[in-house]
Amino acid sequence: MNSKINRIALVLCLGCFIFSCRSKKVVIAKRPNTQKEDVRVKNANTNTNITKPTKVYASATEEYIDVYRNIAQKEMGLYGIPASITLAQGILESGSGRGRLSVKANNHFGIKCHGWNGAKIYHDDDRAQECFRKYKDAKFSFRDHSLFLKNRKRYAKLFRLKKGDYKGWARELRLAGYATDKKYPQKLISLIERYQLYKYDKEILGDSSEEFDIPKVSEHITYTVTKGDTLYSISKRYGMTVKALQKLNGLKGTALNIGQVLVVKP
Asked: Residue 189 and residue 202: Cα distance in Å, rounded?
């Protein structure tokens, strides 16, 4: 009798043990599912992992134009200097905003101290360690550029030209002594036509044909050499051979200089 009772007790104990183990397994199995659901809800209700798209530019010059065109247009409205000329000068003289003076001093036009009482920076130019103006913001450099041209008598002839005559402005700038480089006008004109900077003048002037100088189709299309350019890369860009490019520009070798203006289409 006792042995029978003992067997029944043993069976009951085993049953309780098995039931207890199964209960624990079920609880353990459910925990990961609950955690995953919580994570999914959390991710769905937050924007912490969303990456906003950024604007991509084909070159530093295109980025420069996009950043500073509105400032150049504002200066045109206030002082009558073509936005195309201001932008082209800024591109050329600041290295599209990558030059030391523009990066360290927000000076995009290489304006020297000359009676300046503000912050200064020293930089090698015509002579070693010359004094240049330093600005808190690039827009003040653009304003100084406008005042520099407007308030000096030697540039008075510029303001008698049509505001849309960027070619006349480019040539007169050099004649008035702004630059000593004989190719300075061609460099400005090349930049204006390559990047169609004249359209920013037109936005200010409207459709007045008296003020706006539209480039003629029959004129040469030129290209200004930048760092890294070769005759081969330029010829491929404009769908021609190296020999044809050399012949068009009277070149015998393949050496190029930064800022050199090449005719790429007659």
From this structure: 16
